[in-house]
Amino acid sequence: MEINMVYVIHSLVWPLLACLFWWWNELWYATPVRARCKSLNAKLPPGHLGIPIFGDYFSFIWYFHFLLRPDRYIMSKMQKYGNNNNNNVGAYTTFLYGSPAIIACSPSLCKSIITATTGFKQGWPSSEVLGSHSVITIHGSRHQHIKGLLTSEFNQPGTLTRIAQQLQPCIVAALHSWFQMGQINTFHQVKRVSLEFMGRYMGDLELSPEIDTLDKLFSAVNEGVRAQPLNFPGMPFRHALQEMCVKEVHLAEFAPDKSKGNCGLGHSLLKMFGNEAEDSTSQHSS
């Protein structure tokens, strides 16, 4: 009799726990939003938020990193939930990188999101890795302001001429070294030359002595920018935070002497950003 009771309890408890595990994200995140949407006569797109903490992360990684077919990830959503659900065309709810999300895959919806100046902001954990002052992590009016400064600076004919003049020696030297090497990894070598040129152009930094070390540091940081934001040993996000500190130390060793007045266009551009930011701040405060 006792064995039968234990069997009955297990047969009831484990299915309930499994259902709670499967629907926890839906109950915790989606249910309150659906209640608010109902009062506004709106509706969430179809989809499922997956399991707690990870959500749809494993399916996302399977299609993107193992199969190398991100289009199949979207196609799986379309086949499962349809491609025409009232007004929610080309949008699906999911749970990625520690947060509930809505995936937009239709051209018209993506265009409206990209061109919107308000209502949307950077949602990746890159702000913790790259810092709050990175151009990638800022949003809103400040992002529009800096974007305008970059566009106006780099679209000038004189700036493009200086870029071409500084880029040509780097490319010529790289071609000579590639010829001597015989067989090269094109992706790695092009990335290496791009990093070396950007350091020389933007910061007047001579990165050649440790270009391979810096390349590995930048690669580690890049992997952590769009990784699951889990700050545990062995996770890409934690590794990126550590490598970011090491990268800053390495770049500081190659910083030019500002007293010599040879700080490159990058420092002039950063100085211009600082002056514009101060002017903008004073205008807003007044």
Automatic annotation (TrEMBL):
Q: Where are the transmembrane segments?
A: 7-24, 49-68
Keyword field? Iron, Membrane, Metal-binding, Transmembrane, Transmembrane helix
Q: Which GO terms describe its molecular function?
A: heme binding; iron ion binding; monooxygenase activity; oxidoreductase activity, acting on paired donors, with incorporation or reduction of molecular oxygen
Question: What's a single GO BP term from this record?
Answer: brassinosteroid biosynthetic process
Q: Which SUPFAM superfamilies match?
A: Cytochrome P450
What protein am I looking at?
Cytochrome P450
